[in-house]
Amino acid sequence: MKAELNIPQELVDQIADRVIEKLKPVIIANDKCNNDSILDVKALAEYCKVDENWIYQKTRKHEIPFIKKGKRCLFRKSAIDAWLNQDAVKPLSPFTIPRRSR
Fold first, then answer.
1. What is the C-alpha to C-alpha distance for residues 43 and 91, in angstroms, rounded to an integer?
2. Is 91 helix (H, G, I), strand (E, B) or coil?
3. What residue spans of the chain are helical by DSSP H?
């Protein structure tokens, strides 16, 4: 006895997309663990797309997480990502958008 299952390709693609969406948090968390590199001021400025002086100002005021080794300021990428995410603006749910009265 042999059973066959015919699933349309469109449904397979939808299932695959849904599985990928569910696994994204796990993949991102795993990538952060594996990619915990150390950046210097120049690399961090490039990563954040800001001027190096901006980085120095933030470190001087202790507004950005950094590691001080001698005269060098170093930055752990995971700490910078967490610091940047603190100010992330969350999208509004369609259920919380106030409706205009007519």
1. 30
2. coil
3. 9-34, 41-48, 52-60, 77-85
Q: Is the dihedral of CA 42, 87, 59, 25 positive or negative?
A: negative
- Of residues 67 and 33, more confidence is placed in 67
**Under 8 Å between Cβ of 77 and 31:** no
Backbone angles phi, psi at 79, to 5 degrees: -70, -40
Q: Given phi > 0 = left and psi -120 to 50 = alpha, else beta, which region is 49?
A: left
Count of other CB atoms within 10 angstroms of residue 64:
20
In the DSSP assignment, the letter for residue 87 is T
Tell me what pLDDT residue 36 has.
Answer: 76
Q: What is the CATH number of domain 9-85?
A: 1.10.10
pTM check: above 0.90: no
Domain ranges of the chain: 9-85
What average pLDDT does range 29-36 have in this prediction? Answer: 63
Report d(CA 78, CA 37) in Å as an integer.
8
